[in-house]
Write a structure and sequence with these properties.
The complex is a heterodimer of chains A (184) and B (46). Chain A has no helices and 15 strands. Chain A is mostly beta strands. In chain A, β9 and β10 form a beta hairpin. In chain B, the strands form 2 sheets. Chain B has a 3-stranded antiparallel sheet, with no helix packed on it. In chain B, a hairpin with a 4-residue loop joins β4 and β5. The chains are: A mainly beta (184), B mainly beta (46).
């Protein structure tokens, strides 16, 4: 039996139709492992299910500086979060196990404005998880995170999730070993 | 092995080009991003 559905057309997120008829379903091929389904609500395309936006496959090491340093930048397409979308970031760092502080930061950069979403300090530990979520509050421009902090990030424009590290002692190191970013 | 230079933007050290996602290891050594690829000897950190 031939598997095909001529009613569902393929698009990229950037070139999807500007009109989104209510009930129409499309496949967006450049998001997730092998595309996602979106359904028109009459004005815009809305994700029908969660997806994985990014999985880190390469360890990233920071050493040799005490300056705040970018470890990873993950693009998030404009308006993909929708009104009730939630970004979930789960990561794991290996650290030099001493009393010197190590600072991990996650920030959203949208419209060239950086909004710091979470900061975590770490000392006297060999490893730490570093996780956060950011939830749109029935609005594409109002959020709350897992620390209950409120934000006003415009998620209708393309954004970057930027992970940075900072060492108190340049002889130490931190290694971002794993990271996954889900959009629920 | 590939080198990606760094610049400072808003007091944050940032790579001057996108970091590849298919490397074996990436190290910022205080000066530059060193991209280790298949066949490169990998450094160790603790």
């Amino acid at each position: 039996m031939e598997l095909s559905n001529p009613l569902i057309s393929d698009y990229t997120w950037a070139n999807k139709p500007s009109v989104a008829p209510l009930g129409q379903i499309i496949c967006v091929t450049d998001i997730g492992e092998n595309g996602i389904l979106c359904r028109g609500d009459g004005t815009k395309w809305v994700r029908m299910h969660p997806t994985i936006l990014y999985n880190l496959a390469t360890p990233i090491v920071l050493t040799g500086t005490t300056a705040q340093t970018t470890l990873l930048t993950i693009p998030i397409p404009a308006a993909l979060m929708g009104l009730i979308g939630r970004l979930n970031m789960l990561s794991f760092f290996a650290l030099t196990n001493n009393a010197n502080n190590k600072t991990l930061r996650a920030a959203i950069v949208a419209n060239n404005v950086t909004t710091q979403c979470v900061v975590q300090g770490a000392a006297s530990m060999a490893a730490t998880g570093f996780n956060f979520w950011l939830l749109n509050l029935n609005s594409a421009t109002a959020q709350r995170n897992n620390s209950s902090a409120l934000f006003a990030i415009d998620t209708t424009v393309s954004m970057d999730l930027v992970i940075t590290g900072q060492l108190a002692n340049a002889s130490d190191s931190m290694t971002l070993n794993t990271l996954t970013l889900e959009l629920i | 092995m590939k080198i990606i230079t760094a610049t400072v933007i808003n007091d944050v050290i940032t790579p001057t080009e996108a970091i590849p996602s298919d490397a074996k290891l990436i190290v910022f050594n205080g000066t530059e991003y060193v991209i280790y690829e298949d066949g490169d000897e990998l450094p160790s950190f603790e």
